[in-house]
Recover the amino acids of this structure.
């Protein structure tokens, strides 16, 4: 198998791993959003409302960090 073909396959595997990592971050962010919705719906006292807002912010931050990380690594993979 030519070296060029092996490096191409390695790049494809690396891109696929980066895609899976992004999906993992998005799945985690969705879980944080679900926890926030559950907390808000079933516990209506002010401390729990604040806690649900914190959970929602953590979910949004997780999603944004995952997107940032994906783009940063995609650029590094493409440049190599």
């Amino acid at each position: 198998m030519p070296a060029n073909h092996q490096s191409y396959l390695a790049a494809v595997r690396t891109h696929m791993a980066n895609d899976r990592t992004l999906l993992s971050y998005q799945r985690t962010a969705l879980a944080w959003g679900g926890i926030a919705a559950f907390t808000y719906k079933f516990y209506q006292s002010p401390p729990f409302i604040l806690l649900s807002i914190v959970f929602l912010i953590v979910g949004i931050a997780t999603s944004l960090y995952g997107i940032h990380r994906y783009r940063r690594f995609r650029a590094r993979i493409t440049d190599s």
